Amino acid sequence: MTWGPLIINLVVTIGVVAVLMLCTFAYAMRTGIQAIMDTMWSLGFVVIAGATFALSQGHGDPTIRVVVLTITAIWGLRLSTHIFVRNHGKGEDPRYASLLRRNEGNVAKFVLRYIYYAQGRIMWIVSIPVQFAMYERHPVRAMLWIGVVVWLIGFGFETIGDWQLRRFKSNPENAGKVMDRGLWRYTRHPNYFGDSVVWVGLFLIAASNWVGIVTVVSPIIMTNLLVNHTGKALLEKHMGRSKGADYTAYVSRTSGFFPLPPKP
């Protein structure tokens, strides 16, 4: 691990994230839709990976640098595109609308603090495995490919789960029904579970050098967000209100996060 260049990289990417968040903030204030942050969230990791790839030239193992850039870009671009298409033309997301109702002062200051600073800070912390991995000079190859396999499992869950849900919702006959088919039969959130596993895979790649073990904070934070804060918890609260008894029955028989056989 080459510490000097890595520390410089960490400082530079703080600036990169700050510029990205300010640009997103300016666009959101112009359009009046803060939900653009959801699209920029995953895209931000691609930007961080690209900046780190450029800065790590000559400092890290070439194979691991290309692998980490590639899988981060595939994950981020896929998710960003999916969210943009899903949200396009639908106005403000209810989560952001609820947050904005709490504001009693200047809107710009409020959203800068509670949306862009908050999410930008988390984005940078979660991206640490990507940054560390690209500066590893002598990685354990087995850990690199184990991490890639774990990433593939997570990416598959997330992508297939989103595809199955999109198909389900596109059928008018399913209006008002609860999605309980395919991967959704085994977990109420295959997309969130897959997202979590993606970051476990990236952590394992970073841990191909023992120093990278400290980046375990990344999948821990991401999983906590997905389960207890912006993901599962908020969505299930909304679903419980809108779907009623059908969703309650679904919850009683289906695992909340980790895929498990449904209860009878």
Structural account:
The mean pLDDT is 92. The protein has eleven helices and no strands. It is globular, with a radius of gyration of 19 Å. It has 264 residues and is mainly alpha-helical. The protein has helices at residues 3-31, 36-55, 62-87, 94-100, 107-126, 128-133, 141-170, 190-206, 217-228, 232-243, 245-253. Helix content is 71%, strand content 0%. The protein has two domains: 1-138, no CATH class; 139-264, no CATH class. Helix 1 (3-31) runs antiparallel to helix 2 (36-55) and helix 2 crosses helix 5 (107-126).
Number of domains: 2
The percentage of residues in β strands lies in: under 5%
The secondary-structure class comes to mainly alpha
Instruction: Give helix and strand order, one letter per element, not per position.
Output: HHHHHHHHHHH
Largest sheet: none
State the end-to-end CA separation: 51 Å
Rg from alpha-carbon coordinates: 19 Å
Which runs of at least 5 residues are low in confidence (pLDDT < 50)? Answer: none
Average pLDDT metric: 92
Overall shape: it is: globular
Query: In which range does the helix fraction lie?
Result: over 70%
Number of helices: 11
Total strand segments: 0
